[in-house]
């Protein structure tokens, strides 16, 4: 009997268990950081377990979809690429028309119990597109016109739509992951330097295009100057991290989550982790992300084709960039911007879509070049 050449091997179990460990920590910390906030808020029925129930349900759904995606041959994504792109563009346009507005930004489409955030889909759609087009283009990766019009142009288009949602942070993630993929694809150094400069200038222009972003930039330099307004959230993060010390105050013992830190279960959850679990807890989280990125890079290097290699690298880059930005913001290493910590911060659509990305990455790991 002939062996099936397309038979897939085992997944990368180190990556698999790392993902579930981060997911478990995230659900626990969402509950710990949100319980007081939810209990004191009528919008959540004064239910201290409100966010735990939702994040737990999203986690189970996302884990199921991830396991399903592990069994789907990632090469099928090339055939579906056009439809994925059209769907993503449609969602990005729809959110601008009928999206839910929150804190001055329109980023969500209300779909019953889930608020879909199209920008989360866009991050991975552009990765699939770039991987497919670069592989099919072959030696065109040395052609300036091909790089600018087909590759960077499409990424800039997606980033532009996301920027219209007042979401510079995710637009930045899209462009940074694009640059990583282009660099790994072998774009000539001179062309890459030019692209890097263009993207950098566009990023600076994006900051100065909105007054609130300029305020965040200068506030980052001296948050104490406006301690009760623009600098408030960052200062509360400093208090939380400082109070945690090396060993932390203990799980559930955070003081900053008791209505001092605004929405402590979202973008600034890492500061609550620092307060309750201390430096040790923060280091463990960082090491888990480093391990995830390391395994993702190994999968990229061992992939059996260019499409799989770039797909794995792009997915890994999206997670790595988000984790890096989030931790940098919380620790005051860069201006405040709204990037959630993958698998840890509260958010249904973000969690599910990230786990779908991990399912694709694990599928690539099943088809490595032996």
Automatic annotation (TrEMBL):
Domain of life: Bacteria
Name of the molecule in the record: Stage V sporulation protein E
Gene encoding the protein: ftsW
């Amino acid at each position: 009997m002939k062996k099936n050449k397309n038979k897939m091997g085992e997944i990368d179990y180190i990556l698999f268990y790392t993902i579930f460990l981060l997911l478990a920590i995230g659900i626990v910390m969402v509950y710990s950081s949100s319980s007081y906030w939810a209990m004191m808020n009528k919008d959540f029925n004064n239910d201290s377990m409100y966010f735990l129930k939702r994040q737990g349900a999203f986690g189970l759904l996302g884990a199921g979809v991830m396991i399903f995606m592990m069994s789907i041959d990632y090469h099928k994504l090339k055939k579906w690429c056009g439809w994925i792109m059209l769907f993503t563009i449609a969602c990005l346009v729809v959110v601008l028309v009928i999206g839910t507005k929150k804190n001055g930004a329109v980023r969500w489409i209300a779909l019953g119990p889930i608020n879909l955030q199209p920008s989360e889909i866009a991050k991975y759609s552009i990765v699939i597109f770039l991987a497919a087009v670069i592989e099919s283009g072959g030696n065109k990766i040395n052609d300036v016109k091909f790089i600018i019009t087909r590759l960077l142009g499409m990424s800039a288009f997606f980033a532009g739509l996301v920027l219209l949602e007042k979401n510079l942070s995710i637009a930045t993630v899209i462009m940074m992951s694009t640059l990583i993929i282009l660099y790994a694809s072998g774009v000539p150094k001179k062309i890459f330097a030019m692209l890097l400069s263009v993207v950098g200038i566009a990023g600076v222009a994006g900051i100065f295009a909105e007054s609130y972003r300029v305020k965040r930039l200068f506030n980052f330099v001296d948050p104490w100057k406006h301690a009760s307004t623009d600098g408030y959230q960052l200062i509360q993060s400093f208090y939380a991290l400082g109070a945690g010390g090396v060993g932390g105050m203990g799980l559930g013992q955070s003081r900053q989550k008791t209505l001092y830190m605004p929405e402590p279960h979202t973008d600034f959850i890492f500061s609550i982790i620092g307060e309750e679990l201390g430096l040790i807890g923060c280091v463990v989280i960082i090491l888990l992300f480093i391990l995830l990125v390391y395994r993702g890079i190994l999968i990229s290097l061992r992939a059996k084709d260019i499409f799989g290699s770039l797909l794995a690298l792009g997915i890994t880059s999206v997670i790595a960039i988000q984790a890096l930005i989030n931790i940098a913001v919380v620790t005051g290493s860069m201006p405040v911007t709204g990037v959630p910590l993958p698998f840890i911060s509260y958010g249904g659509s973000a969690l599910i879509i990230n786990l779908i990305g991990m399912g694709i990455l694990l599928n690539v790991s099943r088809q490595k070049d032996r």
